[in-house]
Amino acid sequence: MTRLLLLNKPYGVICQFSPDGMHPTLSDWVRVPGVYPAGRLDTDSEGLLLLTDDGALQHRITDPRHKMLKRYRVQVERLPDDETLARLREGLMLKDGPTRPCSVRRIDEPAGLWPRDPPVRQRLAVPTCWLEIEIGEGRNRQVRRMTAAIGHPTLRLVRVTIGPWQLGDLQPGQWQDADPSSLPSVRSRRR
Questions:
Q1: Are residues 55 and 31 in the same domain?
Q2: Candidates 20, 42, 54, 108; catalytic one
Q3: Domain for residue 150, yes or no?
Q4: Quick one: which of 18, 30, 89, 102 has the most CB atoms within 10 Å?
Q5: Whether residue 56 sits in one domain with residue 110
Q6: Are 26 and 16 in contact (CB under 8 A)?
Q7: pLDDT by residue (tens digit) across 115-142?
Q8: Are 75 and 128 contacting, i.e. CB atoms less than 8 angstroms apart?
Q9: Residue 184 has what pLDDT?
Q10: Total of domains in the chain
Q11: Does 139 reside within a domain?
């Protein structure tokens, strides 16, 4: 039977099970044999990470051809205006090529968001803003590079959905089993 786990990856944790000597790893929170991340979140990012023991499911989740939407709540420096947000929506040119169009909107600070350890730096003279960004691709540090390209560096990034799966009320380091069949047209190789 296919195993799919939803994990709220804490800040500062690397998306691997083997130690690197510098950071906590997934093995500090998940002690389920045979599961591996389906995608990544950089060390400085938090939130939803999927883990599975099924290679076909892992491929279906991570392959950009399937355009699995990922939604992020992103705290950025300063207050982007409508024209700046329109640039994000249309797609930007990054060093590794253009991004696809995305969905972005300003939001209030997310209710129930846990405190980050260490806290996000505070600069009293520089306001911050929260955005909700939804993308269908997942290049290395893409959301951070997109917000930097429009002049609003990311201070905090929390992934809240991947396709049909949501972070929900999971606290940092908590995980739960999920139903892999909630993704349409996924066929497991396991019997």
A1: yes
A2: 42
A3: yes
A4: 102
A5: no
A6: yes
A7: 998 888 777 788 999 999 999 988 889 9
A8: yes
A9: 59
A10: 2
A11: yes
